[in-house]
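Its record is set out here:
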Amino acid sequence: MQCHQDWELNFRAVRWHGFGLLPRWPSAWGALKGTNSWWLSASLGGIAFLIFAEPRLRKPQQETIEVDGVGVLRVEGPIREQIQWQDIVEIRIITTSEGPFGEDVFFALAGANGKGCLVPHGAAVRTKLLEELQSRFPNLRNETIIEAMGCTSDRNFLLWKRPDGDM
């Protein structure tokens, strides 16, 4: 089993990290010789740690998902995806191996025109998307949903597909 952690390198944080580390060495050397207090070195090290850790501690911005009588709308930063219920031709669950620290389950609602909407599992739970899909698409494969929710690898599960003659 391969263990992989993907950290996005934030160059602003790395630059400022040096702000705390570089002055820390002379102050630590002075503290070792007894000419300086350890407080200055510890304070600079703490500042460097906080600057470096701040991007990882910040709460990620949540997307806006609307599920209503017309369809599903997802807005996340510059991304805007929208699909109406009658335009959906295929419903899938896409799983990734990013969990448990990243979003790893997505509902994919695809339209015939190549457009669609990708809804992360957390947003689907908040908006009760699955309940809405089950009420609007009675032939939804519930056993496939259960299988997909237990998957921890990169997979694609077909939940529903519009029959060819129903356009």
Remarks:
- Helices lie at 11-21, 24-33, 38-57, 121-127, 129-136, 142-149.
- Residues 1-17 have pLDDT under 50 and may be disordered.
- The chain has two domains: 11-57, 64-161.
- DSSP finds six helices and seven strands in the chain.
